[in-house]
Amino acid sequence: MGSDDKPLLTLLSFLHSLAGPAVMLLYPLYASVRAIESTSKVDDEQWLAYWIFYSFLTLMEMVLEPVLVWIPIWYDIKLAFVAWLVLPQFRGAAFIYENHVREVLRKYGGNLLVKDHTSPATKAKNRFVDAITPNKVED
């Protein structure tokens, strides 16, 4: 390698360091806001699942850090996996959720899948009313 290669390697290293935050955070944040504003439930599921998996991956990285520092390509593996989770062509987060997590929740989750369609405002009002209503004393 000559000295002419040094600027190119510096540029590639810089782009590599930007790829992680862009793929793992910036694009998912943008897509999550768009999902909130859309009427489709499909994109909501994709991005909620993504944030669940990204949080889990981050926690596992914290726990396994002493082992992962010995794997030189860990960051590249993580970046490729997260890109698969994120990219709309693959919808990896929704795929994992639909085909694996949902089945486990159905089998072991019990009441985790019971949907409560009460709005948060109604729930807060009900709690407030319960708090200020005197308890009935039974004779």
Task: Name some characteristics of this structure.
single chain, mainly alpha, 5 helices, elongated
In words, what does this structure look like?
This protein has 139 residues and is mainly alpha-helical. Helices cover 76% and strands 0% of the residues. The protein has five helices and no strands. The protein has helices at residues 5-37, 41-68, 74-86, 92-109, 120-132. Helix 1 (5-37) packs parallel to helix 3, helix 2 packs antiparallel against helix 3 (74-86) and helix 2 (41-68) packs across helix 4. The longest helix has 33 residues, at 5-37. The chain is elongated and about 80 Å long.
Give the number of helices: 5
How many angstroms separate the termini?
92 Å
Helix content: over 70%
Shape designation: elongated
Low-pLDDT stretches are none
For the report, how would you describe the main beta sheet? none
Rg, rounded, reads 23 Å
Series of H and E elements = HHHHH
Whole-number average pLDDT?
83
